[in-house]
Design brief:
By secondary structure, the chain is of the alpha/beta class. The protein is built from 13 helices and 15 strands. The relative contact order is 0.16.
Amino acid sequence: MSSLHHRHLAVSPEWLALYYRHPLEITHGEGRYVWDADGKRYLDFFGGILTTMTAHALPEVTKAVTEQAGRIIHTSTLYLNRPMVELAERIATLSGIPDARVFFTTSGTEANDTALLLATTYRRSNQILAMRNSYHGRSFSAVAITGNRAWSPTSLSPLQTLYVHGGVRTRGPYAELSDAQFIKACVADLEDLLGHTRDAAALIAEPIQGVGGFTSPPDGLFAAFREVLSRHGILWISDEVQTGWGRTGEHFWGWQAHDRNGPPDILTFAKGIGNGMSIGGVVARADVMNCLDANSISTFGGSPVTMAAGLANLSYLLDHDLQRNARRVGGLLIERLRAIVAGSECVREVRGRGLMIGIELVKPGTDDANPEAATAVLEAAREGGLLVGKGGGHNTSVLRIAPPLSLTIAEAEEGAEILAEALRSVE
């Protein structure tokens, strides 16, 4: 055990998880690579949990942070803040929500907390609809709506949460149906559920479930849900903390795969927009955002430094069309990974979109989750010089692959080769 690991254990809670038998200290990064304290280089296919969206040590972001820090680091939302207003203007336009208002927080958890506050206040109801296998953060209220046992440490809740089918396409009672039948069955389930409840405030859903293992419904499910929700006056919250900013390649926001009946009422974001800086936020229609009748500020949300980073990062993303790169390179990577695991009895599925890819591992010849194999592949990939993540609602048996969106084809091939060797080690 390293000295730093020993010190970590002495001061940190037992539930603060670390990857790897011998935890890794990352000291610096550049582009799509990071280095550990021993000087070993790794290709980063996890990006600080989907947070380093463009590249490590991106000069444009580093310069913006340095220059802003040299002027002033902090003021709070009690004062006018030019970088915050400028970033809010850009996000409001990009969101697709009409007459949008933007409130900045410091994390996705806090963004979802705010969305729940808005929805329950607007609807005067504490009843929330959420998806099975979902994850929305680590706070008391976010845990209350998380449909993934591995990330839900308490059943106590300020909310009444009801869980809806549809977040996982290839498991559960509707898995054998066609896409159209799957959507029809999930809508019927929603209709039936609403027949037994009081007026719900909102449905909150990740277009692609992140911690749940990068699972997703067929395109159009949430548009079909929206027809039902609208009849009941129920708001739709799209949790875009992991799916936003073009990561899926095909769309800038995950909700756009379900856009037949318009944008969500509330959209939450975080992670990638700051490229590692702590930025989260909420976008909502003006009437929803303005429904609070008491004072509210944010001490650290929208700080001048993080807003400067967000502006520089968003500009780089758009100027270099990284959404298109995610679609092109991600599509090639998914097909390469599917070819690698073809015929494997240990891999149930390679799924995802753009640079948001999951590899689900099972016990050979079964559909049973194999978390031990996922851990072994994680370790083997590290030994080979590749960092990936883990997740999945079925005992954390999914490898999560989410590199910076500037990933090159050569780097995608390099990572695929390392993963191939790592997967062979558990065959």
